[in-house]
Amino acid sequence: MKPRFKCYLCFLTLLVASWCVMTFTHEIGHVLGGWISGGTLTQADLVPWRMPYSFFDPNPHPLFTLWCGPMFGAIAPAAVGMVVRKRSMWFIADFCILANGMYIATAWLSGDQYLDTPKLLEHGADPVLIVLYCLVTIGVGYIRFRRDCIGVLSCEPTKLVHP
Asked: Are 116 and 66 in contact (CB under 8 A)?
């Protein structure tokens, strides 16, 4: 296999892995938040090629449950990246940080009542906190993920690119 083709194949593989990790950790965050806050999980789907979801009834603290998705979805992969310290893990972690921020921002713009941001607002989330979450995750995620993409596509030997 030609070296350039290997880089592109690695890049596409990392993108697929990143999507799966992002959807899983985001939705697991909701599930953990619901359980921690005393909710009863009634239905869940974690399959990454469909829109993952989880429903709690009752859900005594829906705002906590809702925030746990994007928070865990960004923090858990970053924590793994800090422990594993490999370019591929940081690629995935940085994708998750950026994707969670982009999801919250675009869900707000779409206004779709079934997405997280309209639900956050419905349950009393402060719009300023939502904006701050989006600014931090999109800002940090974009800078880091862009650097990861350049690193992987440069076809240089794998090296640690993040502290």
From this structure: yes
Write down the pLDDT at residue 161: 47
Describe the crossing of helices 87-110 and 62-84 by its angle, rounded to 10 degrees. Answer: 160
Higher pLDDT, 159 or 89: 89
CA 95 to CA 162: how far, in whole Å? 14
pLDDT given for residue 48 in this prediction: 85
Residue 122 carries which DSSP code?
H
Q: In Å, what is the CA distance from 93 to each residue of 88, 117, 126?
A: 9, 22, 26
Count CB atoms within 10 A of the CB of residue 135: 12
- Rounded Cα distance between 67 and 77, Å, is 16
* CB 15 within 8 Å of CB 95: yes
> Is the peptide bond between 163 and the residue preceding it cis, with omega within 30 degrees of 0?
no
Q: Which pTM was predicted? A: 0.92
How many of the other CB atoms lie within 10 Å of CB of 67?
A: 22
Mind listing the pLDDT tens digit for each residue in 123-137? 999 999 999 999 999
